[in-house]
Amino acid sequence: MNDLYNYGWNDHLYRQKQDSTFKAFMHGRISLTHKTRYEVIAADGRYTCELSGNMLYGRASAEQPCTGDWVIFQPMDAEKGVILDLLPRQQTLYRLKTGSVSEKQAIAAHVQKAFIVQSLDEHFSIRRMERFVVQVTAEQIEPVLVLTKTDLGFEKDKVEASLEHLSRRMAHFYTSIREPDTIVQLRASILPGESVVFAGMSGVGKSSLINALCGREILATSAISEATGKGRHTTTRREMVLMEGSGVLIDTPGMKLFGVTNDDEDNLSEVFDIRSFEGKCRFRDCQHINEEGCAVIEAVAEGELDRAIYENYLKLRKEARHFSSSVHEKRKREKSFARMVKEVKDLKGHPYKKP
Fold this sequence. Notes:
It is a single chain. This protein has about 350 residues and is of the alpha/beta class. The chain folds into three domains: about 5-85, CATH 2.40.50.140; about 95-250, P-loop containing nucleotide triphosphate hydrolases (Rossmann fold), CATH 3.40.50.300; about 265-350, Ribonucleotide Reductase Protein R1, domain 1. It is about 35% helix and about 20% strand. Strands 10-9-8-11-13-12 form a six-stranded mixed β-sheet. Strand 9 (about 140-150), helix 4 (about 155-165) and strand 10 form a beta-alpha-beta unit.
């Protein structure tokens, strides 16, 4: 038997279920995704589920279930079931769908914290961390910076300086699976019933970190590559595990590309420390690019705002605006096509009606 409250079930979710047409059926949380199959944790066990026809064909790809979603399903036997409905999502990590400019993909749902994992080796990149922070904060997910592989040696002063604009707003931890005290400190930051998603590039040690937090081998990991010094990529699916006496951890595949999908410019300004300067610009609608009297540009010129931070802010703002405009254009095309289909149907219904 599973106590679903340990997995994050609460009174709010219960009330949402009562609004569903399928409220009489069982509910559970998706712990693992296999393309069109889902492992669901329910009160009486685990089920491997497929989607009903309405769920499969009646929803956009971004609205398809993902790890962490709460679903209503109909058991077919003791091990299999069919997902009938999806409870409204909250605090969902999305990314731009690979190969698309206007579609986003849900990575994990109903998460309170995002551990943004970055290894302290030659692949360390504060720019990547900023990208993840922008995405999770827009969804009201609390970001936590987790720096791994401290045992390899690193220049702490240099790292601290690069993190300053982020670390003063969010917690950050230095960790190594070979240094148990660092894992204990990180584990203490996870509250009972809290869901935490691990996000980061391939090879930063997310699966190894989850195993260390749980105190046992739960997720498969690979040996360090002698050629690159990095752990070979193992995780190819989004998987959820329960920490004993604590919260829920969601591993994600390493992401080589992580396109932003939110166009919340207030959030962008906050993450990149732009907010404290932009209110002093001469023009209210200043874009902080080449306008006269721009306090942001002046702050960069005077060294008050790091140029690399400012340039990444402009880059991600451009990406977010491009995504937003692409979605808008896609919706316009879809509406135009729908009108055309309706006109054709109307003509077929009136054989003597001339166009």
